[in-house]
Amino acid sequence: MASAATKISRFNIVSLALGLAFLYLPIAVLVIYSFNGSRLVTVWGGWSLRWYAEFFNDRAMIDAAWMSFRVAASSATIATLLGTLAAVALSRGERFKGRTLFSGMLYAPLVMPEVITGLSLLLLFVAINAGRGFWTVTVAHTTLTLCFVAVVVQSRLGSLDRSLEEAAMDLGCDPVGAFVAVTLPRILPAIIAGWMLAFTLSLDDLVIASFTTGPGSETLPIRIYSEVRLGVKPEINAICTLVIGLIAVVIVVASLASKLSSAQTRSAAPL
Amino acid sequence: MSARRIFARPARLAAIAPYFWMVLFFLVPFGFVLKISLSQTAIAQPPYLPVFDPMQGFAAIKAAFAALSLDNFRLLVSDHLYAMSYLRSLVVAAVSTSILVLIGYPIAYGMARLPRRWQSVAMMLVIVPFWTSFLIRIYAWINILQHDGLLNRILLALHLVATPVVWLSTDSAMYLGIVYSYLPFMILPLYATLDKMDPALLEAASDLGSSPRQAFWLVTFPLSLPGVAAGVLLCFIPIVGEFVIPDLLAGSDSLMIGQTLWLEFFTNRDWPVAAAAAVLLLVLLLAPLLLYDRLQRRQLEGTR
């Protein structure tokens, strides 16, 4: 029997509804206006797809989108590999030398202002004379996003019952065998979710990419940013809607993946 | 030897590759920032002096070391433009973080009170905007806030204002943008703490005669403080260095430090001063960063 103290109140419902409305209204406005036929962003000129057509005819924008997509896919893949290894070491490695430094290096980038991360990576690339472009941005994004993957996978590993791994070893598996047979299938949803998160973070990043890219290899956010600085353009609404659509697909896939095994544990830490 | 200990050995080996990566691409770069913050600006490629060249032998390296100086830091400390930048960043971050707590808490609280099956839906709804580009969300607000944007049109139609209000390039727009962008970062840790709370505690408080309001302030709120701390750090630290939001939404008369750094780097091409600004920013954020590190460690690794 729930007492008045634990029941949901009208205040709870109103604040939740207002909060969600605040989060979604601007995005909804943006999406709706991307289908606006009028050149004036604020005047409604009927439904139309002309700004999408405009985008698909904009060579520079398409190139930037393709560059972003390639960077996001490659950096997310490397980050998922490294981040998962890091998570395994932190949650199963017990104590080891340099552990504090290791976890500190993995947690700090999560909150580190991007101007610092971007500038420091650029100065490294300049010092070692690395030609700036696709690979420097990919390495930079990998460095940032592998930390997010590590945290997501680590929180999943922490919530797993370790007795299964131990049982597998008692039954004759070596540690690697036990990991592959027992642990890996159960953290797979978190690994997939980590990849998705890394992909979208890379796709979104403006600041770090601006520092680490070179001439001729603009990413989509860099391109959008330089357009937005000049004012609102309906074409940008269309591009943003496409990006939101892509991210929505990614999120649906990620949540389906994590549903597959979230029956066992509920993790409240998406970060 | 226990299975757990045997398992730990190969698990430790897994650290090697990410360890190496993070040292090379996260730790070592700070060394370069520090070094270049002590260098001088030059019209050259790269635009700073001295440039270390190990090929030129020991004497050259020694000369290069001798050429390092604290001039850039002297400039940052003495020029009140930079001091104002740092101050403004701290004020903006403090004010926005306070607003975020005030807005985020009731939302997280409402989420934790929802029936179980609705909680995961609500959490999904809060996470989705977090996955959507910062830049796009700020751009969405420019759409609404511009001179003949939606907000002014609604206000005019309702006769609340006689002439369009200037929203863009104001501090209010910037605060709105920051609060909007960081809200999920505040809600999620708060919700995680509130959700873990044992409802029996509130039942007990109520049995002992507390009103729901008293029970909230005596039980729920004090127990949720670790979540508040996590949310505050998760928002405060990146907001201090924020660039995109103030650049697109605030006026250009006073800059946050992230903007100053960006300007020095991209517009003035003064890399050494930009690097010095980054070093000072890092020093400023060191205490909250260490606190955050401890909190994260406690949450993920169960250590004290």
Give a brief outline of the structure:
The complex is a heterodimer of chains A (271) and B (304). Chain A has 271 residues and is mostly helical.
Please describe what this structure looks like.
The complex is a heterodimer of chains A (271) and B (304). Chain A has helices at residues 10-33, 50-56, 59-92, 99-111, 114-127, 134-159, 163-170, 175-204, 207-212, 220-228, 234-259. Chain A has 271 residues and is mainly α. Chain A has one domain (58-268): Orthogonal Bundle (MetI-like fold). The two termini of chain A are 34 Å apart. Mean pLDDT of chain A is 85; it is low at 263-271. Chain B has 304 residues and is an all-alpha fold. Chain B has helices at residues 3-13, 16-37, 57-67, 71-78, 80-113, 116-131, 134-145, 150-157, 171-196, 199-207, 212-240, 244-249, 257-267, 271-301; strands at residues 40-41, 48-49. Chain B has a two-stranded antiparallel ribbon with strand order 1-2. Chain B is globular. At the A-B interface, helix 1, helix 3, helix 4, helix 5 and helix 6 of A face helix 1, helix 2, helix 5, helix 6 and helix 7 of B.
Sketch the topology of chain A as an H/E string, one letter per element. HHHHHHHHHHH
Rg of chain B to the nearest angstrom? 25 Å
Quaternary: heterodimer
Q: Quick one: CATH class of chain A? A: Mainly Alpha
Structural class of chain A: mainly alpha
Strand order of the largest sheet of chain B: 1-2
Provide keyphrases for this structure:
heterodimer, A: 271 residues, mainly alpha, MetI-like fold, disordered C terminus, B: 304 residues, 14 helices, 2 strands
Question: What's the topology here?
Answer:
The complex is a heterodimer of chains A (271) and B (304).
Chain A: H1 10-33, H2 50-56, H3 59-92, H4 99-111, H5 114-127, H6 134-159, H7 163-170, H8 175-204, H9 207-212, H10 220-228, H11 234-259
Chain B: H1 3-13, H2 16-37, E1 40-41, E2 48-49, H3 57-67, H4 71-78, H5 80-113, H6 116-131, H7 134-145, H8 150-157, H9 171-196, H10 199-207, H11 212-240, H12 244-249, H13 257-267, H14 271-301
Antiparallel strand pairs in B: 1-2
Helix pairs in contact in B: 2-14, 4-14, 5-9, 5-11, 6-9, 7-9, 9-11, 10-11, 11-14, 13-14
